Amino acid sequence: MPLDSAVNIDFPAIVARFGLPIPMIQWIVIAYVLTQTSLMLSFGRIGDMLGYRRIFLFGTGISAIAFLACALAPTYGALLAARVAQGIGAGLILSCGPALATSLFPEAMRTQILAHYMMMFGIGSALGPSVFGVLIERFGWSAVFSFRAPIAAVAFLLAWTLPRPARGEREPFDAAGGALLALALSFMLLALNRLRPPGPETAVFAAVAIAGLVLFYRQERRAPKPIIDFSYFRDADFAVINVSNALINLSAFSIMLLAPFYLSRIPGLSLPAAGLVLAASPFGIIVAAPMAGRLAQGHKPRLIALIGTALSGTGLFGISLSGSIPDIPILVLSMVTQGVGLGLFQVAYFDIVTAAIPAQNRGVAGALGMATRTIGTVSGATVLMLVFQSLRTTAPDGFMTAFQATFRIAAAIPAALIFLEFKRYRRTSLIASAAKTAETEPR
């Protein structure tokens, strides 16, 4: 699934193949992301009901077929339909992936398994822009899809060797809640997409999304077996870490969004070389994920998440110092630092969420993590590009001023999260201290 980052570098070839106006290319992303995000939590709940192995088999099987359909698409409409199918496959795989991985090992190994899971995401994200840039040049636009079909097919075959889960008691699925959630998330993503520039349809999409979320919340409160139990969010720590996951991924997407434009301005830097530079951030995730698994054995996950947040912000600020005369080693070091921070945070986040939600609902826990991650990424693509374009039109020297300022704003998001976390910690400590004093004082 992380190899889909390679589709971004395939955009010019897809535009040329189907004779599209450039704005139409956005639907390649929307069709895929909207489908997987709107269905992911429902798929996680179905995985809890039917078993993660079965959902993974459906996901890899559908993905293999969807990749071939994308590669062989005769028209742009057919390609978009295949991308919707690919989004369904991705939603199935991502919703149950963390739960399936952790279910194969003792609970004491949960954090280490999640660390290895996130490490594989880093590997996929690093290979996407670097390897597929070469494959597209050699085999054409369809390579970004056709070369992944065998990978999905092999995963489908290997999944049959996984142990079958014990049959549990059948539970009802909240179909009404699933439909409302899909409606709300779909229109939320469409509203975000229409923020650049906003129009009348933006307000309509936003209104439908808000109404859908309100109705979904009410449905879940009265459903005997809800898709997600909102009582978890009464815990302030649980609510804050989920919001932080979306915001950290929002700020992190600034690299994939804007760094390619900066690298394209460097004379003599080839496409494969630019891909290797972009792979520096995912490389940091590869390094940090197993490191987080080891650190978790002696440190609280919230401390690891805080360290990851600080490193992510530091790396983004380092990128903002890039000038018109590029310093590639410093740029790469900053990207690696950001990637290390993101890797530490993601492992700690999944550890916190999977520990807070009961093991029998671990599919929902994993899907929640992936959904908030995707929402943050999509929000980053819209908000940060809106900031960049606004600054570019007003700044005297255009691109570089907007590039540096946008990365400083992205770096300010982790900094703000750290500041708020310390304020929350200080307030909690004062309340605990006051309560302890009240208990010890004589009556």
Account of the protein in words:
The chain has helices spanning 11-18, 26-50, 52-71, 76-103, 110-139, 143-146, 149-159, 175-193, 200-222, 236-264, 271-278, 280-295, 301-320, 328-356, 362-394, 399-440. It is mainly α and 443 residues long. It has one domain (2-162, 225-422): Growth Hormone, Chain: A (Up-down Bundle), CATH 1.20.1250.20. It has 16 helices and no strands.
Give me some keywords for this one.
mainly alpha; 16 helices; Growth Hormone, Chain: A; 78% helix; 443 residues
The count of strands amounts to 0
Strand content: under 5%
CATH topology: Growth Hormone, Chain: A
Number of domains: 1
The residue ranges in which pLDDT falls below 50 over 5 or more consecutive positions are: none
